[in-house]
Amino acid sequence: MAQTLLYQYGPDHFEPSSPEGEARREMIYRDPNPVYVGFWRRLLAFFIDGLILTVIDWILPFSDFMQRLLDLLYFVILPATSWQGTIGKLAVGAKIVDGEGERISILRSIGRYFSQFLSALLLFIGFLMIAFSAEKRGLHDWICNTFVLNRDSELYP
């Protein structure tokens, strides 16, 4: 085996040094074609989230104001955590990232939450855009510059 390597590379050949840290991560995990999560998986995630919040409401009957506050906290805080999505998004294997492929901030998450009302207000056309766009983005994703990807996929600008 040593003679084979010597024959292939010669006596003066030195192996290139392996990259360190971030360069190695980019070489290993760089995916030029991220997998976007489509309309049906996102709809399933929304139904799972709705079921979870309904069960919480049955167990702990809150007032309407408290229920809306719980919805706000659920849909704003969880996407901004390291989970990068709600429990429904985790269940379908999706995550929410910003335009740089990083976790979204709490302010971007708030903007995304309230822009979903705009998507619904326009006869749900903002949500139907997900089914017909190449990057599977709805109106609220365009407004806040977010993407919904498979959990094991990466977005590189």
Automatic annotation (TrEMBL):
InterPro entries: Pra-immunoreactive, RDD
Transmembrane segment boundaries: 39-60, 72-93, 113-132
Chain ranges of the RDD domain: 36-145
A family per Pfam: RDD
Keywords, sorted A to Z: Cell membrane, Membrane, Transmembrane, Transmembrane helix
Bilayer topology: Multi-pass membrane protein
PANTHER family in the record: LMO1584 PROTEIN, PROLINE-RICH ANTIGEN HOMOLOG-RELATED
The protein's name in its UniProt record: RDD family protein
Organism: Paenibacillus rhizolycopersici
Lineage, broadest ranks: Bacteria, Bacillati, Bacillota, Bacilli, Bacillales
